[in-house]
Amino acid sequence: MPLVKRQRSSLENDSDQNKLGLCGLRNIGNTCFMNSVIQCLSHTSELSSFLRSHHGSYPSSGNKDQQILHEFAKLISEMWTANVRSVAPMELKRAFSRKHRMFSDFNQQDAQEFLRFFLDSLHLALNTGSKGGTLYIDDKVSDNKKADLMWNWYSSHENSLIRDLFVGQLKSTLKCSTCGNTSVTFDPFWDLSVPLPLSSTRCKLDTCLNLFIKEEVLDGNDMPNCSRCQARRKSTKSFTIQRFPKYLVIHLKRFSGTRFSKLSHLVEFPTSARELDMGSYGSNSNSSAQYSLYAISNHMGSTGGGHYVALCKHPISHKWHEFNDNIVSDALPESFLVSPSAYILFYERAK
To answer: Is residue 32 flagged as an active site residue?
Structure first.
């Protein structure tokens, strides 16, 4: 009989664990864009675990970025408390609006813009990097060595958990069409904002990524200055990924030119574990970077009357759920994930 009780208790505990984090966020006035992103970040395992374990460590009396971090950690802790089914992110919205005035009203906003500002505030609140100093690099060093030197210099100035989790490094190659001189630079990136093809309304994510790294011709007013020719020259520019982040955020550029038009392409993207292999987009031929999808921010409808929801994979049950403001769905089939509404894709790098 005691054995039966222990088994039942274990099953109940498993069930409770599977329900943790299935907490809706109440819409406090056109805040579905914020709610959708917060749910995706809530299911970013390392970030969510860190905030829950450090809840209460951040003073609410700090600067504006620290206030945002304090309210976010408090909100995440609430969302992952047993038997909490819905919370209102009012204090987080207030703290964020005090720093970023363009979000102070209750108009609909762009989820990707919010994500960038939000992660930047979290980074600034956690940053322990040192400021100042100048980086000098010998032109004779290899590209890989140059990349490492630039990354180490960047990391010494921008040192936070947010950088550790979300930031990668892009390699940009600029080649003069006249003299053949090649200039290589390395820059950090927080997400990949990839274009959609105009020739088709249905494509694969690979097509969008190929468009992102495709060699671009810079001519006319776009011609850069060639250091060897000492003049503006027609050039080509291309990207590859030098350093892959732990969590890869891919933004599908559905709003073309202006926010008043939207591309409703069906982009087929990998949804299964380790299914997205980014190796072919790496700077080095032996690059290997497999990713697993864990969250999606969906935008439905038009730019004028659109609505955001999140689809997130539970870290314990591994089941997908839809978070539509305060309403959380039961488990969803994987076939439900790919739709013309997908706007921001969140991938975790396989260990």
So the answer is: yes
